[in-house]
Specification:
By secondary structure, the chain is an all-alpha fold. The chain has helices at 8-30, 37-66, 76-83, 86-101, 113-117, 120-125, 131-162, 168-195, 208-233, 242-273, 276-288, 290-308, 317-355, 357-369, 380-401, 414-418.
Length: 422
């Protein structure tokens, strides 16, 4: 089937899952502490994770277009739809921005004026870590990403209708793609620093943007495999073969190893240097979050490495979907452990301003030594919220897929993609 039809049953299922996510958010809000730390950190976690997957889909499209690749052409409509999720992604980040200005949440230590006034490190970083930069940086940078995603999509759709033998549309797409790659690379680092790394405001790593980008990339590949397998199961993307699946599997395998290289490099270099401001990030996670810290490596390296090492496993839909689910969940947990410890620490600091130093010390000691569901490990409310955001992502993608033919037959690489063999 050349045109995707978003069935009523599919809408009902995804709508129900989105409702589950909203219910989990509501329960989290109503049962949360006075600062609603768990609620807002869950919202930040999922908003950044799925917006990043959309960004990475655009980056993948741009990279493959610039490199004159052809194998992916039969599935490129899916990545175009993924990339357009940047639009609702910006809306989700707007909620966090409004909360930042309205003092609805205390996710970032640098957003507390009293904390900055008494902290020389935060003062030194205040030119970048401030509400204005967070707000306008997000709007401008994500807005530019949306412009490129929209332009690439429009050129692709126009090529379907008005493609020429000279492939003028594809030449324009290549220009836009080449322009986006350096722009996307540099600006995504700035957003990663603002959205995620600044949760631990005293800490920094020169590898953090690479590390986060690799996590987004693997998540995007895993979700692509899962979505394609489902759509093929119900009769779409007939031209996507085991050869294409094999290439997706190679990217999943290779970038899982690359992510592990960055994970180890960031840990080893910072720990070996023994710089207090840097080692505290890993020391805290090893001491207070051991399940997340070591489970991260098991889910995101050991499982994909040993399962995907064999060449034939990359051609089996059942195996690939299983590994992709594990990896997608693993990298979602990876973002969980990037965000939660810093958010919890900031909440302690804010409570300290209100309760006094003695009470704050007792409060901080209590939380450091006691397990807290939703912070030391994701609970049912976290998993339910993730399912709701994932359903929202897929619902939006399916709506975009309905708008155009799944097969871009006027793409100059379409025939090559049909005959793809490895």
């Amino acid at each position: 089937m050349e045109h995707f039809k978003f069935e009523t049953k599919q809408k009902a299922v995804l709508g129900g899952l989105m409702g589950l996510g909203l219910l989990c958010l509501l329960i989290t809000f109503l049962t949360d502490d006075a600062l609603h730390t768990r609620f807002w950190s869950n919202f930040l976690h999922n908003s950044v994770f799925f917006t990043g997957v959309a960004f990475m889909a655009l980056f993948i499209l741009a990279a493959f277009t610039t490199s004159w690749a052809g194998w992916y052409t039969v599935m490129k409509r899916l990545w175009e739809a993924y990339a357009l999720f940047l639009i609702p992604g910006l809306a989700l980040m707007l909620v966090l921005i409004i909360g930042l200005w309205g003092h609805w949440h205390h996710l970032y230590h640098w957003a507390d004026a009293e904390a900055v006034a008494s902290d020389k490190i935060l003062q030194h970083k205040s030119a970048f870590l401030n509400k204005g930069w967070y707000t306008f940086g997000t709007f401008i940078i994500v807005g530019v990403w949306i412009l490129f995603a929209w332009k690439m999509r429009q050129l692709s759709l126009d090529e379907d209708k008005n493609g020429t033998p000279e492939y003028r549309h594809h030449h324009k797409m290549r220009i836009w793609a080449a322009a986006f790659l350096p722009l996307g690379g540099f600006t995504s680092a700035a957003m990663v620093w603002q959205w995620i790394m600044s949760v631990d405001a005293h800490w920094y790593s020169t590898l953090f943007a690479w590390y986060t980008g690799a996590s987004w990339f693997v998540s995007a590949m895993a979700l692509t495999i899962i979505t394609l397998a489902f759509l093929k199961f119900i009769g779409y993307f007939e031209n996507v073969t085991a050869e294409h699946l094999h290439d997706l599997g190679k990217f999943l395998f290779a970038f899982s190893i690359f992510w592990t290289y960055l994970w180890f490099s960031q840990y080893m270099l910072i720990w070996y240097a023994n710089i207090g401001e840097e080692t505290v990030y890993f020391y805290e996670r090893q001491r207070d979050y051991p399940v997340l810290f070591y489970g991260n490596v098991i889910l995101n390296f050991i499982v994909p490495f040993f399962v995907l090492m064999r060449n034939d496993t990359k051609r089996k839909y059942g195996t690939m979907v299983f590994v992709s689910i594990i990896v997608l969940l693993g990298h979602w947990i990876d973002f969980f452990q990037m965000i939660k410890p810093g958010v919890l620490h900031t909440a302690h600091e804010v409570l300290g301003h209100h309760q006094g130093a003695a009470d704050h010390a007792a409060e901080a000691g209590h939380h450091a030594s006691h397990f807290m569901m939703g912070f030391h490990f994701p609970g049912l409310l976290e998993f339910g919220t993730m399912i709701g955001f994932l359903a929202f992502f897929i619902y939006f993608v399916f709506m975009r897929l309905e708008k155009a033919a799944l097969a871009p037959k006027n793409d100059p690489y379409y025939a090559e993609s049909l005959q793809h063999h490895t």
